Amino acid sequence: MVEKFLTGKDYAEGTAAKHFFFSSIVMLNIGVLMALGTSMRLAWPDIFPNDIPWLHFGRIRPVHVHFVIFGWISMAFAGAMCYMTPALCKTRLWSEKLGVWNCWAWNVGMVFVFFTLINGMTTGREYQDLIWPLDAFILLFVFAPLAVNIWMTMFRRKAQGLYVTLWFFGASLLFILLSYFIGAVPDFFPVTGLSEAYMTWWHAHNILGLWITPVSAAIAYYIIPKVSGNTLYSHKIGHLHFWSIAAFYSTPGAHHLMGAPIPEWLKSFASVSGVLIMIPALAFVVNMLMTMKDKWWMFTRSIPLQWALTGVLFAIPLNIQGAFQQTRALNWYIHGTHWIVAHAHLALLGFSTFIEIGAIYYGLPKLLKRELYSEKLARLHFWMMAIGFLGFWAVLTAAGLVQGAAKVYEIPYIQSVVATHPYMVGRVLFGALIIFSQPIFLYNMWMTARYGKKIVPEATVHTPAPATA
Predict the structure, then answer these.
(1) How far apart are CA 428 and CA 433, in angstroms?
(2) Which of 37, 141, 369, 466 has a Cα at 20 to 30 A from 398?
(3) Residue 193: how many CB atoms within 10 A of its CB?
(4) pLDDT digits (tens, 9 = 90+) for 183-207
């Protein structure tokens, strides 16, 4: 009965993906606008009136984090899944109707996320700031419907076998449901102290490790072979990537708590398994770069490929940092510094966001059956993002090293704050390039939907019958 209601008189193909893609771009613009507020607060603490609670750093930052992770990134993932899964399964999305409802429920949920966090209604736990009713809402009306829709599409596929992208899509939806629930357990049950801290940071780590990283990789596995025209270099390496990321990325979390009185064996286990994430990282990067063999000239020609490959290249420093900063010695030096902020943005803004934007530049015009409105605006968007992000990442990494040195030489903390002030100004300036490039992105895609040149299907050519005597 439910299935008949969801699939009977369904919406047109691609409707859900279009809703998710456009919603995600709006969420990106809101998220980066919040980031402008946090960056300016760090550079000039008194730039905003301190008697307005809504403008406090502690209110703005959680909004920024949640709109970037659960608004922009996760909704772009949903759009990519709703577009790529039917294509790879050679069938329709199980329920476009469910997908559209899922998208609007998601948008309503993000409205509640904004108003609760900006008013200080929070648990105070990193990446798990939402109060328990919103936790329940996200599990039941955000991730669960998306998972059902994608799993049912895969179950009813007409293609033989599952391409590696579908492996990651299917598993990551299970991972995010489990990770989010475990992270929310302290909201529903009396879990406190070190147990609460470890569950919080296991969830925070796996939002990246078992959701953002694998789904971003899955999108690259689709976009790069599709646009380049080359077949995937190695399906076996793709499977190695899948199983090793499931085995090693799910185990750390304790490296966020190296200074806490948790068991020593758990810290050592986190360090060793953390270094082992180099295995899936190398598998992914090698597979993608080898897939581009003889087609690197397309990097400057194809907009989607330029974005996606730049994201893949950002995965190289991301995973080198991520592996070795989980060792005890390096973790002690950079923990609690701006280095960590730089690393987090390398993952979310560098690696993941570049790949997702590539997916939208590739998929949305095809869904709209229109050509991209302005290639010049797309190029401007790319270079503002690339230059802005590289500068942003560099100044924050440098600031983190300054703070680490201050820790080694036991310099008073306030002096390290003064020493890093120029870097915080640089953060604002480079961040402004990133922030103000996103309205260009939104405008370009909106104009593509309204005024982009329609793609006319090629007419069938009929060969005339031979003349008869």
Answers:
(1) 9
(2) 37
(3) 7
(4) 999 989 888 888 899 899 999 999 9
pLDDT digits (tens, 9 = 90+) for 29-62: 999 999 999 999 999 999 999 889 999 999 999 9
Residue pair 453/407 in contact (Cβ under 8 Å)? The answer is: no
CB-CB contact of 102 with 142 (8 Å)? yes
Residue 264, phi then psi, degrees to nearest 5 = -65, -35
Question: Which option is the CATH number for 19-450: 1.20.5.170, 1.20.210.10, 1.20.120.1080, 3.40.50.300?
Answer: 1.20.210.10
Q: Which pLDDT does position 126 carry in this prediction?
A: 86
Percent pLDDT > 90 in the chain is: 79
Q: With 0.85 as the threshold, say if the pTM is over it.
A: yes
413, two tokens? 């903390």
In SS3 terms, the chain reads as: CHHHHHHCCCCCCCHHHHHHHHHHHHHHHHHHHHHHHHHHHHHCCCCCCCCCHHHCHHHHHHHHHHHHHHHHHHHHHHHHHHHHHHHHHCCCCCCHHHHHHHHHHHHHHHHHHHHHHHCCCCCCCCCCCCCHHHHHHHHHHHHHHHHHHHHHHHHCCCCCCCCHHHHHHHHHHHHHHHHHHHHHHHHHCCCCHHHHHHHHHHHHHHHHHHHHHHHHHHHHHHHHHHHHCCCCCCHHHHHHHHHHHHHHCCCCCHHHHCCCCCCHHHHHHHHHHHHCCHHHHHHHHHHHHHHCCCCHHHHHCCHHHHHHHHHHHHHHHHHHHHHHCCCHHHHHHHCCCHHHHHHHHHHHHHHHHHHHHHHHHHHHHHHHCECCCCHHHHHHHHHHHHHHHHHHHHHHHHHHHHHHHHHHCCCCHHHHHHHCHHHHHHHHHHHHHHHHHHHHHHHHHHHHHHHCCECCCCCCCCCCCCCCC
Tens digits of residue pLDDT in 318-331: 999 988 888 888 88
Task: Report the distance separating Cα 10 and Cα 12, nearest Å.
Answer: 7
pLDDT in tens, 354-378: 999 999 999 999 999 999 999 999 9
Q: What single letter denotes the amino acid at residue 208?
A: L
The reported pLDDT for the residue numbered 194 is 87
Rounded to whole angstroms, the Cα distance separating 384 from 468 reads 64
> Tokens at residue 384, please?
């503002």
> Average model confidence (pLDDT) for the chain?
92
**Residue 295 pLDDT greater than 90, yes or no:** yes
b/e burial code for range 68-102 (CB count within 10 A of at least 16 → b)? bbbbbbbbbbbbbbbbbbbbbbeebbbbbbbbbbb
Angle, CA 195 vertex, CA 331 and CA 211 arms, to 5°? 65
